[in-house]
């Protein structure tokens, strides 16, 4: 019984073990096929997700194209602007399609965006052009109406002119009759005058004798006056020899430096620009000096330049207008720029006295000179107007930097044998000289630097013709009345076909200093 029981136990164990092995094999096979199916599903899901993402990218890109086209057409809604800005960086899956769209948008922007970066879209452009067309039509209609009115006025004027001609013809006939009568009266008076001629001839002889006596007295007086003039001339020459010319450079510092020359040597670049309040429209000029130790002015004046373009905050382009000695002392990098009348930080104030002759032609060109100064940003506080010998402007003050003196009147330039103290021209010259002396005295009291025109022009880089400012006031004797007037004053404008009255002009003496 015991042996049988042991055999039954082993059989049950074997059956259980066989069942376990079969069940394990079945589970392994089931798990293997289940894993294979799951891997395929994951691959398909990933592929579907990629396609969905690509479709979303393309959808966003074409939505961006749609919104951008609405903006170009001028019909983009305000609530769509945020979507357009959010989608502007979207790219499609097809790079070739993106390149075509970018090319199209670049062309549209080029046609729509103006120089100031403000876009005028098609709807706005159509509205603007429609408005301009309507305005043009209105203007055309108004012009046509004005033309009809003008034709009617011309017809009326022709009729009035014909009537006026008839009136003048009648007046001409009346004038001829009156002239004939006056001629007959003159003939009668002439016969009467002949009878009186004998008495007048005797009186003329007496007057001639008296004139000769007066001439001898005048000659002696002129001789005395010339002696006084010669004595004063000698004193003046001695005083001028003792006076030293004002060195304006002593009161000025270099305004800039030449940093580069071009290959031709005609154009230079300087270290002054927009940050220094330099403007190309001012046509600022500078004199050129060598730089000594310590960056100070050294040597003689080398030349001049004029600013033609401002390139940056501290860079400008200039052309060389004068080279004093190109062989012995050429213009090089590092040369200093001098212009006592120009400042980057404050405005220079000047006053002007004397004959301002900028071309050496003996003409008063103070108007052109003042326009040139104002163009460079220089304020003219006061100037002597030779038309009425009066000082114009607000007047010199402690802020005035320079008194620019042009040619002064010199009574000694006239031929001494014709000198007359009571000559109106000489009297006018003396009055002008007194005004200039008063302005010099006032400048000295205010501490204003007095500088001759030629010296001022040389230091500021303005090139004057040879002989300007050293003619001793000869221009005062040769100025014609019309030469100090501007072009519109010389030829008055016509109104309604008739010349308007000419404005009052200064006479010859007013223009002389």
Rg from alpha-carbon coordinates: 49 Å
Q: Could you please say which CATH topology of the domain at 347-513 applies here?
A: Rossmann fold
The CATH fourth-level homologous superfamily of the domain at 347-513: BRCT domain
List SSEs in N-to-C order.
HHHHEEEEEEEHEEEHEHHHEEH
Task: Describe what you observe in this structure.
Helix 1 crosses helix 2. The longest helix is centred in the middle third of the chain and has 121 residues, at 122-242. Among the domains are: 250-344, Thrombin, subunit H (Beta Barrel); 347-513, 3-Layer(aba) Sandwich (Rossmann fold). It has ten helices and 13 strands. It has 513 residues and is of the alpha+beta class. The strands form three sheets. The chain has a six-stranded antiparallel barrel with strand order 1-2-5-4-3-6. A five-stranded mixed sheet has the order 9-8-7-10-11, sandwiched between helices. Strands 12-13 form a two-stranded antiparallel sheet.
Please outline what is shown here.
The protein is an alpha+beta fold.
Short descriptors:
single chain; 513 residues; alpha+beta; Thrombin, subunit H; Rossmann fold; six-stranded antiparallel β-barrel; five-stranded mixed β-sheet; 13 strands; elongated; disordered C terminus
